[in-house]
Amino acid sequence: MNGPRTIDLTGEAAADARALRDAFGCFTTGVTIVTTLDGGGAAAGFTANSFASVSLDPPLALISVAREASCLPALEASGVFVVNVLHVGQQDLARQFARRGCDRFEGVTFDTWHTGAPVLPGCMANFECRAHDIVDAGDHRILIGRILKVHHDAEHEPLVYLRGGYRKVHTD
């Protein structure tokens, strides 16, 4: 169905999950790669669009991670993560970190700051965080991080995600 739809979710929410997903897809988001360390200290990461600022004092940000996400155990065990905000020239990197069953860091160089979690260079922004709180929320876990260090470079155009695909937007 391509036209407008209204869905009543007061009953079985799972009854029309695709329509709900399509409705969420109408909200344009930025594209990030969340990086962390696994139990052995190796780099781990994934492409995500569920990132938001929470507080300036103290400096807090959140990411929302599916319970079945392969990186969730590493995030919870390490207690540290970096949110790397991508620009339009980093679509291939976003796709690489969205793939499953591969070494997502193949050919990727990174820096480290305070926590040792990978910081991807050349991004629009990087937020290094230490876990502040974890909240259960349905089929996701919300990780709230205390921001320890931040870098930003607003000279790039942002990479955004809308209706299931990467997009670019031009800013003035």
The level-1 CATH class: Mainly Beta
CATH homologous superfamily classification: Electron Transport, Fmn-binding Protein, Chain A
Under the CATH scheme, the architecture is Roll
Distance between the termini: 36 Å
What's the count of strands?
12
Helix content: 10-25%
Strand sequence of the main sheet, in spatial order? 3-2-6-9-10-5-4
How would you characterize the overall build of this protein?
The chain is mainly beta and 172 residues long. It is 13% helix and 42% strand. It has helices at 17-24, 72-78, 91-98; strands at residues 29-30, 32-37, 43-48, 51-56, 59-66, 80-85, 111-112, 118-119, 125-137, 140-152, 159-162, 165-168. A seven-stranded antiparallel sheet has the order 3-2-6-9-10-5-4. A three-stranded antiparallel sheet has the order 1-11-12, with no helix packed on it. The chain has a two-stranded antiparallel ribbon with strand order 7-8. It starts with 16 loop residues before the first helix and ends with a strand.
Short description:
The chain has 3 helices and 12 strands.
Topology:
Layout lengths: L16 H8 L4 E2 L1 E6 L5 E6 L2 E6 L2 E8 L5 H7 L1 E6 L5 H8 L12 E2 L5 E2 L5 E13 L2 E13 L6 E4 L2 E4 L4
Antiparallel strand pairs: 1-11, 2-3, 2-6, 4-5, 5-10, 6-9, 7-8, 9-10, 11-12
Search tags:
7-stranded antiparallel β-sheet, globular, mainly beta, 172 residues, Pnp Oxidase, Chain A
